Amino acid sequence: MPEIQQFLAATTYAVAGASARTHKYGHKVFIALLGSGRETYPLNPITEEIEGHKAYPKIADLPVVPEALSIITPPEVTRQVIADAIRAGVKHIWMQPGAEHYEASQSAREAGINVIDDGSCILVLLARQS
Predict the structure, then answer these.
(1) pLDDT for res 25
(2) Residue 15 bridge partners (DSSP)
(3) Which residue segments constitute the domains of the chain, with CATH numbers given?
């Protein structure tokens, strides 16, 4: 199964860089995943709640280990998020355009994680499915 289909077949998701600010991509991705019926958790170290959902500072703080992780953070933050994801056992990572970090991608692949970091945008894909 291609990388994107594997990502979308997961049962639990987290969004690193989820935002309470509705104009931010982190908000749009979080809402799009929720709106598609997926169990999704927001990750944001400075926000307590997003659209009525408790936000968590990092993956280790989540009540479950998400199978899939969408990342909308600056590349230097992405590096730490991916290190945390590897430690937690996340199986799929999708770095949204602008969040990519080459070394972190390589580390995730070496850990056996399905990585999408080719500039594809989950918002475009989810919009096509609705």
Answers:
(1) 95
(2) 42, 70
(3) 3-129 (3.40.50.720)
